[in-house]
Amino acid sequence: MNLEALRRSAEQEWQALNHPSRPQILIGQATCGEAAGAGAVRRSVLDTLARLGIAADVHSTGCLGTCYCEPLVDIIKPGAPRISYHSMTPEKVSSLLEDYLVKDNPCPDLALGVWGEARGGIPALLDHSMLKSQVRIALRNAGVIVPDNLLHYLARGGYKGLERALSMSPDAVIAEIEKSGLRGRGGAGFPTGAKWKLCRKSRSVPKYVICNADEGDPGAFMDRDLLESDPHAVLEGILVGAFAIGASHGVIYIRAEYPLAIRRLESAIADLHRHNLLGDNILGSGFDFNLSIVMGAGVFVCGEGTALTASIMGRRGMPRTRPPFSSEAGLWGKPTSINNVETWACVSAVMLNGAEWFASYGTEKSRGTKTFSLAGKVRRTGLIEVPMGMSLEQIIFGIGGGIPYDKKFKAVQTGGPAGGCIPAEKLHLPVDYEALKKAGSFMGSGGMIVLDEDNCIVETARYFLSFIVDESCGKCVPCRLGTRQLLDTLTCITRGSGTAADIDKVLGLGRSIIASSLCGLGQGAPQPCLTTIDYFRDEYDEHICDHICRAGECRALVAYAILKDRCGGCGICRRSCPSDAISGERGRAHVIDVDKCSKCGNCLEVCSVKFSAVARVPAGKG
Amino acid sequence: MKIEAILAKFGRERLNLIPILHEIQAQSGYVSPEAMQAVAVHLGLSDSEVYGVVTFYTAYKLKPAGRHSLKVCRGTACHVKGSEKIIGEIEKQLGISDGGTTGDGEYSFETVACLGSCALGPVVVRDGRVYGRVTPAQVKDILRGDE
Questions:
Q1: Which helix (H) or strand (E) holds A253?
Q2: Which residues of A, range 69-88, sit inside 8 Å of B by Cβ?
Q3: Of B52, B44, B53, which Cα lies nearest the Cα of B12?
Q4: In this model, does residue B25 exceed pLDDT 50?
Q5: If 0-12 CB within 10 Å is exposed, 13-18 middle and 19+ buried, where does residue B58 land?
Q6: Cβ B76–A219 below 8 Å, yes or no?
Q7: Contact status, residue A559 vs residue A599, Cβ threshold 8 Å
Q8: Would you list the domain boundaries of chain B?
Q9: CATH number given to B3-56
């Protein structure tokens, strides 16, 4: 079937989904949906339909990004618009199907929103506080289409960008990408068009393109979600880039921890081969291109370009000095353009809608949008995409809904282990490459983790260092030994054995590591502790001088005690204590044996429901 | 599957090293010294080169894994949501620490860098099944493989 015929059936397929003759049910089954229980919800949907004798089609879709209220189930009933339902359980979805499909009650109380205009007491989905200020470019189809269905992607304008690129000269395609202002979404922000130009100029052949899907930043899941929800958006971008550069082969390097994304990619690539969108003489244009998937093997530093290339070639994934850059000598020593998953998804959007359209979003130097994985202590966690230049405050408090349980915001961590913690007084900062860098943080790939008053800032910095120490490849001394020294020093501070000289030691050592490490992993490693010392110096001083952890997270610095006059003697704390440290008769005040106490905090948690008689107090010096 | 059958599926170019090791790890649960030697012969590499790659990547284990695998995410989002407590509870219940296997060969437990389900932290994966928003009290059920 040629592409034109394929587009016609895509149109019919899309119509059949959205204006169906029998109910269509879409279940959000990306990994996050699965973690929230989408599998059990799906089984319940199938059982309920069988029990009620209803003929309906059940599809698996990707992730809309409202992970906090997953699992999501969308229902399209004949003659009605698509309605999204949130926080589904096997029981809830079963009664919902019966109410809506049999009794025609759309259950507004269970709905997240209706696609299109508000109707029947259900608000419009796009008016939802988490979605209304988003601009979804990379995520344009996430949670909308069935990711395994090429026809759905085509019906949404898919591969029109590729057709347009193939009708242009490679240089004109590069010029278009340059004009869009697109910069690398992996974090460093190198202009994509400029990277491609370097690659194209090189006379050496063959040339390669690599899709970097080795998303390793802890707390970041943009690439996973995108690949699970809309693999073709990425694949189309790769095809456009390969054509522009003159590459004959491409590799997608993806983490082995993402099995569902790998399956979706494999199925999408097989579809492309079937329809002459991959392989020899693509769409009759004379352009030949093949694509393979290489699985990573659990090493963070392999996300670095030169390490990634070494890993594809079957070597230890260790970075090397640059130059030469990958655009001159990358995979097998040939010119290689390595771009991030999200960058590729933006490329296909730029080619579909034009450079001016893309550049109309964002700030002067940071054009377009950026996806962020919003996680940690924020009400509405999930995956979002906003125009560059939106303030952190708008993101965390507007889209994310602020901090749960009336707790106080402490900091937001962006940029992964090479990023920094941004305090409340800097929340007005816009997300843009330069502004975040100026604040000591980093755009990074898009992890955004919110910390509240219960998170200790020193412990957070220590956590990132422990990650780096585990992941340092060991090739260069500053990173291998320097980060270990930093970790040891911070560990001492969190255990109450820090000294006044430690802060200067950390600052000096941190600066040396930044200046002398071989790759971005080492160069960024001290950033979390440097920014936290900069913005939260008083918390460090409290740990060192007063042996106080105000968040109560550093176990060595806290103790637990039962307030006699409040204790009702119910014994719930005694039963919840893993170390048998609590004693007391029923109805009488209990006591905690500090020598036995492991400071897990279980007693505080269980007691807060009834009496709030357990208190966390400073452990005191020595 | 025998090592020869795995090797027969791959060519002799070095780029096949990591895919071969993935397959061996998936089939046997670990990469034995004998397997490393067979891979070295197949690809024309020295034993030490293969060993260097096996030990560099955390996905490859040198010892047999337990019948069930238990992974706890130590990514940032899970960390701030209390994954330490989950780790502590698992260590207590199984009597092993990160990277260990129980004496009866039933469970292997490891912490892993971000699993990418950050919005639902803390996250635990048992035999490929993902559990979100895990509390210490749920650990017992997860060990049993309950919903």
A1: strand A249-254
A2: 70
A3: B44
A4: yes
A5: middle
A6: yes
A7: yes
A8: 3-56, 68-144
A9: 1.10.10.1590
